[in-house]
Design brief:
The chain is mostly helical and 256 residues long. Helices cover 75% and strands 0% of the residues. It has helices spanning 3-22, 37-54, 57-67, 78-95, 110-120, 125-173, 182-233, 238-246, 251-254. The two termini are 22 Å apart.
Length: 256
């Protein structure tokens, strides 16, 4: 679980609530004055329903699963992957390619296991590279669908907030004969805009950026695995495999 995502989202909302409660010039604010169920329903409900207009139903359902990766995620550890590939290179050098199938560690990456099966099955290097590139492209497509969905909600949230504000203003202007209701009515109308900004800036757009970051990391790890598998299939010395894979690691990771 990525605790940073939870800290960021919960912390942002806590900061806003704290600012409201602190008030201005030492006068505490009333949190209930910033709660408008109708405005919240317009912003959140409208933004989420817009997803069904943006993409097919099955993509919306898939997006929910992909978005969960921003919180529940197993980030690839490149030094561990490097060690696994070097071990496999040593096995292939000593016992032959067919011995790789029984040498995979129990916690091996599924992409790595798939690549090993292709190599053991005797596929030529061009076919292995092509099939694994297709797998990488498919991963990027799934993650991009999730990011597009989050970006859409983040983009349309402020627009729905403005719609909520306009609805509130229309209702308020219809009651101008009651001067005492103008101030509270204006406050409620402005809540729609505030909700739109909060939903966009504190939740959906940050999650979209986090998903893009994790997608980049996973794609980078898969390219590293692909490079290692092709090197093993070509019969390279384990030290050569190690040097090739080291180029994928940051200096800090190379020291691990």
């Amino acid at each position: 679980m990525d605790i940073a995502t939870i800290i960021g989202v919960v912390g942002a909302f806590a900061l806003l609530c704290g600012a409201i409660l602190a008030g201005h010039d030492g006068h505490a604010g009333d949190l209930s004055a910033f709660v408008d169920p109708v405005g919240l329903a317009i912003v959140v409900g409208g933004s989420l329903l817009t997803l069904f207009a943006c993409m097919p139903f099955k993509n919306v359902i898939e997006t929910i699963r992909v978005v969960m990766r921003t919180v529940i995620v197993k980030r690839p550890h490149l030094p561990t992957i490097q060690k696994q590939l070097i071990h496999l290179a040593e096995v292939a050098r000593r016992d032959g390619i067919l011995a790789l199938e029984n040498s995979l560690p129990a916690n091996a990456d599924r992409f790595l296991a798939h690549g090993i099966r292709l190599v053991v099955d005797g596929r030529d290097s061009e076919m292995v590279e092509r099939l694994l590139h297709i797998s990488i492209d498919s991963l990027e497509r799934r993650h991009m669908t999730g990011k597009i969905a989050l970006d859409a909600v983040g983009k349309y949230g402020p627009a729905y907030g403005m719609v909520g504000t306009l609805i509130g203003l229309v209702l308020m202007l219809g009651n101008l004969d009651d001067p005492d209701a103008i101030g509270p009515g204006m406050a409620v109308a402005l809540l729609g805009t505030m909700y739109g900004c909060i939903v966009s800036s504190c939740l959906f757009l940050p999650l979209a950026d986090k998903l893009a970051l994790y997608s980049h990391e996973e794609v980078h790890a898969r390219h590293m695995i692909l490079e290692g598998l092709l090197s093993i299939q070509a019969g390279d010395n384990p030290s050569i495999v190690s040097e090739k894979l080291a180029s994928y690691l940051a200096p800090r990771e190379q020291r691990e």
